[in-house]
């Protein structure tokens, strides 16, 4: 009998490498669900500007939210990022999503892609006009990439209870610094509108609730706090809602991280080896 999930003799179920040959292990979704699926379907027509993405990926989610917030026309193309289709490798030899194709040009890296969309000067600007506020937005985006996101994965991948306590504390500390730097009234980072820094963090705000809460008991924001105001505003954004799948997709797609399973991803390897993001 095949070890690769051919159990009923009719249908051969191909397992993903992260499942370690065990069909009972959850793996990543290969198609969005819920509101995100509706958006993906409505953005499936051929277009010059293409976002190659994977539905569970928070780095893709950033670029997707940016496109929606800006109100640009684009095509969303779902790719199975761990099987590295040629159309992805042609743009990004590292085989990571998100990747963007615009005409015959392509590029990758979520923050770079958000800057590229900004530089097109079409639709709503997400970076403020004032050079000092622009610099500050980039500084806090760097904080998110360099500190908050690695801490999120360190905590999620930690298997020992004392490591989990330690990494939860680190993550809270890094989030607190961003909250202290935010406009005091909010609800967003720079005030009443959702801008660049909010979009950079939004996918992980969604995943604190949908992944860290069920897998690690991440607490709800303290009622009445500035952090609660920020979280609720991000979660309530139409662009975030339209690009977010149903809860089950995140539960399934992140089980491999929560179990720190081998062959999960380049993110897992980078975090386990003590480095930054890939
Ligand atoms: N620094 C990259 C990180 C992108 C990234 O790690 N994407 C993951 C999916 S969430 C990926 O493509 N993984 C493929 C792999 O591990 O081989 C960015 O900001 O775009």
Write the layout of secondary structure elements.
Elements: H1 34-42, E1 49-53, H2 58-70, E2 75-78, H3 86-89, E3 99-102, E4 105-108, H4 110-119, H5 131-157, H6 161-181, H7 196-216, H8 226-236, H9 238-242, H10 247-258, H11 266-272
Parallel strand pairs: 1-2
Antiparallel strand pairs: 1-3, 3-4
Helix pairs in contact: 2-4, 2-7, 5-6, 5-7, 5-11, 7-10
The protein binds glutathione.
Residues 54, 57, 59, 81-82, 95-98, 109-111, 265-267, 277-278 line the site of glutathione (GSH).
Question: How would you sum up this structure, described in words?
Answer:
With 278 residues, the chain is of the alpha+beta class. It has a domain at 131-272: Glutathione S-transferase Yfyf (Class Pi), Chain A, domain 2, CATH 1.20.1050. The chain has helices at residues 34-42, 58-70, 86-89, 110-119, 131-157, 161-181, 196-216, 226-236, 238-242, 247-258, 266-272; strands spanning 49-53, 75-78, 99-102, 105-108. α5 packs across α11 (266-272). It is globular. The protein starts with 33 loop residues before the first helix and ends in a 6-residue tail after the last helix. Residues 54, 57, 59, 81-82, 95-98, 109-111, 265-267, 277-278 line the site of glutathione. Residues 1-11 have a biased composition (Polar residues). One of its GO terms (molecular function) is glutathione dehydrogenase (ascorbate) activity.
- Mean pLDDT across all amino acids: 95
| Shape call | globular
Number of strands: 4
Structural class: alpha+beta
The bound ligands are: glutathione
The CATH topology of one domain turns out to be: Glutathione S-transferase Yfyf (Class Pi), Chain A, domain 2
CATH architecture of one domain: Up-down Bundle
Beta content comes to: 5-15%
Assign the CATH class of one domain.
Answer: Mainly Alpha
Order of H and E elements: HEHEHEEHHHHHHHH
GO molecular function: glutathione dehydrogenase (ascorbate) activity; glutathione transferase activity
InterPro entries: Glutathione-S-Trfase_C-like, Glutathione-S-Trfase_C_sf, Glutathione_S-Trfase, Glutathione_S-Trfase_N, GST_omega, GST_Omega/HSP26, Thioredoxin-like_sf
Pfam family, one: GST_C_2
Organism: Zasmidium cellare ATCC 36951
